[in-house]
Write a structure and sequence with these properties.
The protein is α+β, with helices and mostly antiparallel strands. Helices cover 38% and strands 24% of the residues. β4 and β5 form a beta hairpin.
Length: 209
Amino acid sequence: MPGLTCAPRPTAGRATRWMDLRLPTAATEAPRAAVHSAAETALPLGVLDGGEIVLLAIKPSVWRTLFDAGPWLLVTCLLAGVLAWKRLPMLGLSPTATAQMLLMIGVARFAVAVVRWIPTWYVLTNRRVLRIHGVRTPAVTATLLTDLRQAHMTVSAPERFAGIGTLTLISRREDQEPHRWESIHSPQVVLDKIRDAANKAAHLHDMVP
């Protein structure tokens, strides 16, 4: 299997770390982490193949819901405050009713973000990395560990405040979009686990005649 290359790619306004997924030896591989049974049972049925072992199953931080709905909450609260202060009616409603309607829009957008967050999982197995999402029907995007070419971590300003980060996993296959594990806790630890699993998968792949 060809060696992996890794080149830094600066991103304005963000702290970025690029890492080669393959190391020359397996001596640095960390012990396999135990996965809580609650996380495993929460995964949709039929996601895993036969013999596939879950090494890590995590969710985005709850901060993700605020990042998604925050602009809506901020704008609707500001508009509601201005309209209530200026006593300006809209759409034929009283100023109070108008402000309440705007606040309900912000709250509704936050509720949508929570509903989307609940079924979202990021899963690392001994064969693949997976992103599971979708409210009605789970949608699964997956990449073989042996197809991973690069991984990098980015930390936006809001994520830095919350102590979280985002991983982007890039496949060798041009027809596959990069995976984004958004707003996860301990992103460096998770990146190291993915690196270790990719090293082992590549080693086993090279042993196959």
